[in-house]
Amino acid sequence: MEAIGVPFPKSQPMRIYSSLWNADEWATRGGLVKTDWSQAPFTASYRNFNVRPGVLTQLDSSRDEKMKRVQKNHMIYNYCTDTKRFPQGFPRECAITTST
């Protein structure tokens, strides 16, 4: 998506950072699902994490339908539809309508 101005850090090594914050108002189905803070402290770890970059290709029609079905039935949050978070307009990558 660099062609439409979406930056990508391709000239440096990548690292993974994680954090946990209270996003009850926007990342949990618009506030419908609340974080159970009584279960804190929350911990996470990565073991033998290895990413192998590859070329993204467009999905064929069968895989595209499967992806849409998974998104419809399992995706909890999509920032490209969150008008409260982006009242001035969505990020550029949200304009892409094809699955990659």
Walk me through this protein's architecture.
With 100 residues, the chain is largely without helices or strands. It has one domain. The protein contains 1 helix and no strands. The longest helix is centred in the last third of the chain and has 14 residues. The protein starts with 60 loop residues before the first helix and ends in a 26-residue tail after the last helix.
Radius of gyration: 17 Å
Per DSSP E runs of 2 or more residues, the count of β-strands stands at: 0
Alpha carbon gap, first and last residue: 10 Å
How many domains in all?
A: 1
Helix/strand-derived category reads little secondary structure
Quick one: biggest sheet? none
Shape: extended
Q: What share of residues are in beta strands?
A: under 5%
Helix content: 10-25%
- List the total number of helices: 1
Helix-strand sequence: H
List the helices and strands and how they pair.
Elements: H1 61-74
